């Protein structure tokens, strides 16, 4: 084989290798495009009370991705929120329905208090974190001897009345949620300043600006735990619990067997 033929042979071989390279594979490119499309569809499906998160806006998409990451199991390392939801949602959901409040608001007390009846440094208290005067305004007793903010049923009814009032003011559930967190005055000033009622385009304080994003993230981890790392954890916890039960039962059985042998030995000794 001449030198010229050898070079030509090597060039043909190199060309074939490049064509077969995974980086250039049409299937690989197709899969990458499919994954990207799937992710885009997911972000565009995110909503709170049927008011959709405008995921086409890069800033908004970054914020919702950040909140979802914060609520991922890798960061929280617990499924206590799911346990609390399972415990309290059967009480909260019928009351929301009775008062015509969208079901997505059941996630609000999870964001507000983790569904713990705590009191904040500012004085907000209960599962729905009512301030004392707001609680009184919507029918709760708050005094030295009684604090109905800690009553899950009564406080949920009060929250429904308050949310209904806020929605009548702003005609938007996202703005009602923002006003619940930051106050009616804050939202009214933003509407006057920007001349629109789009929560996602308002310049709110840091806490209120993230509030609806937190509600959406909470909704997603509770409703779609498998997408956010929780199903694997629950499966592992279930296996660990099963193993513990089996181990405990085995120990009891062994202990019982040893005790039985000991008792038989004593009876045999007494018969002699």
- CATH C-level: Mainly Alpha
The tally of beta strands, per DSSP, is 2
Strand arrangement in the largest pleated sheet: 1-2
**Mind describing the biggest β-sheet?**
2 strands, antiparallel
Total number of domains = 1
Query: Mind telling me which CATH architecture this is?
Result: Orthogonal Bundle
Order of helices and strands: HHEEHHHHHHHHHH
Compute the gyration radius: what is it? 30 Å
Task: Briefly characterize the structure.
This protein is mainly α and 272 residues long. It has twelve helices and two strands; from the N terminus they run ααββαααααααααα. It is globular, with a radius of gyration of 30 Å.
List strands and helices in order, with pairings.
Elements: H1 3-20, H2 26-45, E1 47-48, E2 51-52, H3 58-70, H4 73-76, H5 80-98, H6 108-113, H7 132-137, H8 152-170, H9 173-182, H10 184-194, H11 206-223, H12 230-271
Antiparallel strand pairs: 1-2
Task: Give a verbal description of the structure.
- By secondary structure, the protein is mostly helical.
- The chain has a single domain, classed as Lysozyme (Orthogonal Bundle), CATH 1.10.530.10.
- It is 68% helix and 1% strand.
- The protein contains twelve helices and two strands, in the order ααββαααααααααα.
- Strands 1-2 form a two-stranded antiparallel ribbon.
- Helix 8 crosses helix 9 and helix 9 (173-182) crosses helix 10 (184-194).
- The longest helix has 42 residues, at 230-271.
- The radius of gyration is 30 Å and the shape is globular.
- The model has no long low-confidence stretch (mean pLDDT 82).
């Amino acid at each position: 084989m001449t030198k010229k033929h050898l070079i030509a042979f090597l060039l043909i071989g190199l060309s074939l290798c490049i064509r077969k390279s995974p980086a250039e594979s049409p299937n690989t490119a197709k899969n990458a495009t499919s994954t990207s499309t799937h992710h885009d569809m997911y972000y565009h499906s995110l909503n709170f009370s049927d008011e959709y998160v405008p995921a086409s806006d890069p800033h908004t998409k970054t914020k919702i991705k950040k909140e979802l990451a914060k609520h991922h199991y890798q960061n929280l390392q617990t499924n206590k929120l799911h346990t609390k939801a399972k415990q309290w949602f059967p009480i909260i959901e019928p009351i929301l329905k009775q008062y015509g409040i969208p079901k997505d608001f059941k996630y609000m007390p999870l964001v507000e208090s983790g569904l713990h009846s705590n009191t904040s440094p500012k004085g907000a208290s209960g599962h729905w974190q009512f301030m004392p005067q707001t609680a009184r305004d919507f029918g709760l007793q708050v005094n030295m001897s009684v604090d109905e903010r800690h009553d899950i049923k009564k406080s949920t009814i009060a929250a429904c009345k308050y949310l209904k009032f806020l929605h009548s003011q702003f005609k938007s559930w996202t703005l009602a949620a923002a006003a619940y967190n930051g106050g009616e005055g804050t939202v009214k000033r933003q509407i006057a300043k920007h001349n629109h009622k789009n929560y996602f385009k308002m310049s709110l304080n840091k806490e209120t600006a993230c509030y609806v994003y937190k509600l959406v993230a909470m909704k997603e981890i509770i409703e779609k735990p498998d997408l956010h790392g929780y199903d694997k954890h629950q499966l592992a916890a279930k296996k660990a619990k099963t193993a513990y039960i089996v181990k405990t039962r085995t120990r009891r059985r062994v202990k019982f067997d040893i005790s039985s042998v000991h008792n038989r030995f004593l009876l045999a000794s007494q018969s002699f």
